[in-house]
Amino acid sequence: MRRVDEYLDINRANWDERAPAHAISPDYDLVRLIDDPTSISNVVRFDRALLGDVSGLSGVHLQCHIGTDTISLSRLGARMTGLDFSPAAIGEARALVARSGDEVTFVESDVYEAASALGGEKFDLVFTGIGALCWLPSISRWAATVAALLKPGGRLFIREGHPMLWALADARPDGLLVVDLPYFERDEPSVWEDGGTYVETDAVFTANTTHEWNHGLGEILTALITEGLQITGLVEHDSVPWEALLGQMTKDEHGEWRLSDRPWRLAASYTLQAVKPR
Ligand SMILES: C[S@@+](CC[C@H](N)C(=O)[O-])C[C@H]1O[C@@H](n2cnc3c(N)ncnc32)[C@H](O)[C@@H]1O
User: Fold this and answer.
1) CA 43, CA 264: separation in Å to the nearest integer?
2) Which of 59, 139, 209, 213 could be 125's S-S partner, Cβ–Cβ 3.0 to 4.6 Å?
3) 1: confidence class by pLDDT, cuts 50, 70, 90
4) Substitution candidate for ligand 1 out of 4, 63, 70 with most atoms within 8 A of CB
C-alpha cells in the first residue's frame, strides 16, 4: 500500500538531484551574488515594489531552495532563516553563504513541520513562492503553517505561479492556451516524469518523477482567511520568472517571461499579502 507521505520521498529525490545543477547554472548566477555583496536576485528585485521595507524584520523563507532569494532579503536588511526539505538544496544554500559572507540560517524540514523545526520561533515576515505551492498536497495545511509562524502583526508575502498558468496544456502550434490540467486542489497528485529542469544545464538526472498539486486562487485566499489572516493585497502579473510555457514566452531584461503573443491573455503569476492581526 502507498504511504500517504510517499510524495515527500519522491519529490525530495528529484530536488536533491537538481539542486547542485542549479547552483552551477548561469540562471541562478551565484557568482554574481558572491562577487557583489550588494546584488540581489531577479526575483527579489521584482518583488521590492510590493514588498516595501523589510529592514529590521525577522523573516523565514519557506521552500528556500539554494538560498538566493533568502540572502537577497537579508541584504535588504531582514534577519533571515531559510527552510527547505532537500538536504542537497540546504547544503548548497549553506555553501553559498559560506562564500558570500551573508548571515543567514538554513534549516532542513518539510514545510508542514516548519513550526516545530524552527523551535516555535515566530516571525515578522513569512516569504515564499516561485514554484513552492505546487509541491504541497493541502493548501489548508500550508495556511495553518504560515499562521503558526507569524507573530501578531506579522505578514505573509508570496509571489507564485498563477493556478491558471499551471492548469494550461503545453504549447500548441496554433498558439492557443488550452486548459487541460486541474485548477482546483484534488486529493490525487498530478504525477510527472521529466528528465529536465527549469535552468540551463548539461546534467543528466535519474530521479525524474514528481507529485504535484494545483490550488485555485480562491482556495488559497480562503485557506488564509480561515486561519484568521487578513488579506492586504492581491496583484496579478502577466509575467513569471521562469519559462513556464516552453517556446511560447519571451524573456525581458529583468528575467521575467511573458507570452510572446498577446501577453494580456494570461495572469502568469500573482503577489498575495496577508497580515496576522495583533
Ligand atoms: C522551485 S523551488 C523554489 C524556488 C525558489 N523560489 C527559488 O527559485 O530559489 C521549490 C523548492 O521547494 C522545496 N520543496 C518541495 N517540497 C517541499 C516540502 N514539502 N517541504 C519543504 N520544501 C519543499 C524543494 O526542495 C525546492 O527547493
Assistant:
1) 21
2) 59
3) low
4) 63
